[in-house]
Design brief:
heterodimer, A: about 450 residues, alpha+beta, three-stranded antiparallel β-sheet, two-stranded parallel sheet, 12 helices, B: about 450 residues, alpha/beta, D-Maltodextrin-Binding Protein, domain 2, two-stranded antiparallel ribbon, globular
Chain lengths: ~450, ~450
């Protein structure tokens, strides 16, 4: 306990540095706790953090962290959420998906209304298997360059789209299946997003919006209660709450069972998987699930930088004026949060409405997820987005990492965002630079 | 998916590499199957994922498969039939490599060692038989909080003996050699550097100056220093290197007498994919692989001297430091006594630590007042055993074997004796100081 407080002290020091705008310390900006945690809270925070960072071990092993697999993608949560930031897509088919995954399904709906898992592969391609259990195969990603888009003033914006090929498939072909490519999402600020009342999301969905922008809430199954509730997490708002998102990641990405998902992720067609040893039943005890949930609920979003610089202020005004804020809401208010009181009753600036929007055919994955249609995506929060290159050492954006900089991401917008995108393309170059400077300040 | 079936996979890759094929709108070539290379390791994701990405780019015919095990759990894994299908063992646990070598667990490493010295100072960077090689190293020294030091008017020490001065009283975070894995070598470095007699004298005074005795090593010593509770801690560089590189206001200082803690790589005797294993070991030791461990989130010390030439000037270069004698510590020479010295230290200097610290404060006060307490000081500084006694094989054996055996009754009995003797000695010193009114 004392040791944990001491680690916190290290944190305080690095925050102090961030305030002094120490460039190096900004690399830790996605790792800070919400201010106001008491000693016991800090202890839980750091316990959860250790679990989030830890590499898991194949059973049987003389180690508390046993239970990886039988099928899995990576060894640790942090593998796809490096420094609590976002993952990246491979540069080409020779490179493996190190912080990205492919969701799979077949047409139709499962009993709970969600995507119908592939009968042989389940809901996600697990590239790795423990000894004796063949990994499911490999998703080889290639990029197809598209004609560049010309902006007002003549600047050209390149565009690329991914194409995936499944190789070394161990359980039969994947013909006729649907798939969705997704990079690891940032994992800060999630407790605050969870504390935005469902009623707020329903109201935002109903509100009249300009430019033909609609917005819909997803409704997904809460496995703890068996009820259908508003979806919030995941690229299609396909998870109802943080706890289920975490337990879902444990079983889906690491092959670790938990009280919420007590069965290993083996399909009927995966015989070796079904007989492989489990470390325990479940492998992740409730207390550990509590600790990670507590941790992720209390990771703070990084504060904006340079908010008063004239260019950034101009950019913020433009962001509103050309219609970006119809979806990327600059302010939300959190409601009561009895489990995590530090997240309650706060004004936050996440730049999202947590609603689903049709972003056009170019970005569509063609894979419905509960009420999210094949062309719909949840508006992603933009807080912290300006630190991606510094912290994650890449500048890939959008659900599959296809955008190689912020401008490419904006130019990909279409569908409900077509009007905002058109105005962006028509902005004078200095105005575009101001808008990008604003995004970089977030 | 392939729209150009008559191209061979290899040719397509070649063309791609030459930039001849990325035609717009055309599907890229099929990715070929890859052979797994199974690596047993205890490196964290920060380190390993960078090697996965870079190795597979350099060697597209292989696919790294990672099996993660704590060092204590790695031994049983490698002792399973066919060594559990592991190709490569890569970890910072020198003793595991040595024990497994003795069991015949490795095949000859047989990789090109051009540009890789066999030693840094007197520390070996590869075993004599050619079974395993160091892939990176960490150095012993002081983690300091410069702001706190400045506030206290203390300079960053150049060597261990400076920490014996009264100014450091209560200001040092000391990892307990009885509990913290890296600390026994640290104790031994000082004993070799100053010799047995003076070495124990320095340790007694440093232990007397310790403000915190840490029961866990790793980043906890760093945390103690970052918090300002102690302005200096005894540690290994990598526990603080990444924190410093990412902005923590701390500094690591290497003393004139340091030592290294290496990580090694070896290829299993039964490796299913020996070529892939060798390719990986070769990659880790290549300039490209060695550069990866210098990333600011990792900050380890490469074993390939050429790599330091590309690094920032403030990146510590152990090969240059070795020219000044910083790494004259010869770990092989005194490996057998590590268990013994750690146990002696723990029983006589860190157990009932408050009493020792109190006696040292009284001695410092008396000396500051100009009193002659030389005899008492010498008694405090005297080694718990003579050099000759400590070299007795009968005494060394129980401590050397302790790690392997579940229980070590002989060692425990000796420890109980030392503890008593040390208590008696402290009692005696206290009475002498009382009589002098000091």
């Amino acid at each position: 306990m004392r040791a944990l407080c001491l680690i916190f002290a290290l944190f305080c020091l690095s925050t102090a540095n961030a305030r002094a705008d120490d460039a190096a310390a900004l690399r830790e900006a996605y790792l800070q706790p919400l201010p106001g945690l008491d000693d016991a809270g800090r202890e839980r925070f750091f316990r959860g953090r250790s679990l989030f960072r830890q590499s898991w071990v194949i059973a049987p092993a003389d180690d508390k962290a046993a239970g990886l697999g039988p099928l899995y993608n990576r060894l640790a949560c942090i593998s796809c959420h490096q420094k609590n930031g976002r993952g990246r897509a491979p540069d080409g088919p020779d490179e493996r998906m190190l912080s990205m995954l492919v969701r799979l399904s077949v047409p139709g709906r499962a009993a709970d209304g969600g995507p119908k898992p592939h009968p042989a592969y389940g809901g996600q391609l697990n590239e790795e298997g423990v000894p004796g259990v063949p990994g499911e195969g490999r998703a080889a990603l290639s990029w197809i360059e598209l004609p560049a888009v010309t902006l007002a003033g003549g600047e050209k914006v390149a565009q690329r789209r991914p194409q995936v090929e499944f190789v070394d498939l161990a359980y039969g072909d994947l013909h006729g299946s649907l798939h969705s490519l997704r990079v690891g999402q940032p994992v800060y600020g999630l407790g605050l997003l969870e504390a935005v009342p469902a009623a707020t999301l329903l109201r935002l969905a109903r509100e009249a919006k300009p430019d033909g922008v609609r917005g819909r809430v997803n409704r997904v199954r809460d496995v703890a209660t068996g009820r259908d509730v508003v979806g919030r997490f995941g690229f299609k708002a396909n998870m109802p709450n943080l706890r289920q998102q975490i337990a879902g990641a444990f079983v889906g990405d690491l092959g670790i069972t938990s009280p919420l998902f007590p069965s290993e992720n083996c399909t009927a067609a995966q015989a070796a998987c079904r007989v492989a040893p489990s470390a325990a039943h479940p492998e992740l005890p409730a207390a550990d699930l509590d600790a990670i949930e507590f941790y992720l609920a209390h990771v703070a979003p990084p504060p904006q930088r340079d908010a008063d610089a004239p260019q950034v202020r101009d950019g913020a005004a433009l962001f509103e004026r050309i219609g970006c804020t119809a979806c990327h809401r600059p302010e939300l208010r959190t409601g009561p949060a009895p489990r995590f009181p530090l997240t309650a009753g706060r004004h936050i600036a996440p730049y999202t409405d947590l609603l689903l929007h049709d972003l056009g055919p170019g970005l569509a994955d063609g894979r419905p997820d509960y009420r999210a249609g094949p062309r719909q995506w949840r508006t992603p929060p933009l807080w912290g987005i300006g630190l991606v290159p510094r912290i994650n050492e890449h500048s890939q954006y959008l659900h599959d990492g296809r955008a190689r900089n912020l401008q490419e991401a904006v130019v990909w917008h279409d569908g409900e965002a077509a009007a905002a995108r058109r105005r962006y393309v028509e902005l004078a170059p200095e105005a575009r630079r101001a808008l990008l400077a604003f995004l970089e300040s977030l | 998916m392939n729209d150009n079936p008559d191209f061979s996979a290899l040719r397509r890759r070649l063309l791609l590499a030459l930039g001849a094929l990325p035609a717009a709108g055309r599907a890229a070539p099929a990715a070929p199957s890859r052979q797994p290379v199974v690596v047993l390791t205890s490196y964290n994701d920060e380190v390993f994922s960078r090697f996965e990405a870079a190795f597979e780019k350099a060697w597209p015919q292989y696919r790294l498969q990672l099996v993660w095990r704590m060092p204590h759990d790695a031994l049983p894994t490698l002792r399973q039939p066919r060594q559990s299908g592991i190709d490569v063992y890569w970890s910072a646990s020198p003793r595991n490599f040595a024990s497994l070598a003795a069991e015949g667990a490795w095949q000859a490493l047989a990789i090109d060692r051009d540009g890789l010295p066999g030693h840094v100072g007197r520390a070996r960077l590869a075993d004599a038989e050619g079974y395993y090689a160091a892939t990176e190293m960490a150095g012993y020294g002081f983690i300091v909080n410069p702001a706190e030091l400045a506030r206290l008017g203390l300079a960053v020490p150049q060597d261990w003996s400076e920490l014996a001065a009264p100014a450091w009283s209560g200001r040092i975070a000391l990892p307990d050699p009885g509990r913290v894995g890296f600390a026994p070598v640290m104790v031994d470095i000082v004993l070799q550097a100053y010799g047995w007699e003076r070495g124990w004298a320095v340790w007694s005074a440093i232990a007397g100056n310790a403000g915190s005795v840490m029961e866990a090593g790793s980043t906890f010593v760093t945390d103690e220093v970052a918090s300002g509770r102690c302005p200096l801690g005894l540690s290994i560089d990598f526990f603080s290197a990444a924190a410093i590189a990412n902005g923590a206001p701390l500094r690591f200082a290497y003393p004139a007498h340091s030592g290294i803690n290496p990580a090694h790589i070896a290829i299993c005797r039964d490796a299913p994919n020996p070529d892939g294993a060798r390719a990986f070991a070769d990659f880790v030791l290549s300039a490209a692989g060695q550069r990866l461990i210098t990333h600011r989130d990792i900050r380890k010390l490469p074993v390939r001297p050429a790599v330091y030439r590309e690094l920032p000037a403030d990146y510590f270069d152990p090969f240059r430091a070795a020219e000044r004698g910083v790494f004259d510590y010869d770990g092989d020479a005194t490996r057998d006594r590590l268990g013994l010295v750690a146990a002696l230290f723990a029983q006589t200097l860190t157990r009932e630590h408050g009493e020792l610290a109190g006696l040292w404060r009284r001695v410092h006060r008396a000396e500051a007042a100009g009193r002659d307490v030389g005899a008492v000081r010498r008694q405090l500084e005297a080694p718990p055993l003579s050099a000759a006694e400590a070299a007795d094989p009968a005494l060394l054996a129980p401590f050397r074997d302790r790690r392997e055996a579940a229980t070590a009754p002989a060692a425990n009995a000796l420890e109980a004796q030392w503890q008593q003797a040390s208590r008696a000695r402290r009692g005696d010193i206290a009475r002498r100081l009382d009589r002098m009114g000091a």
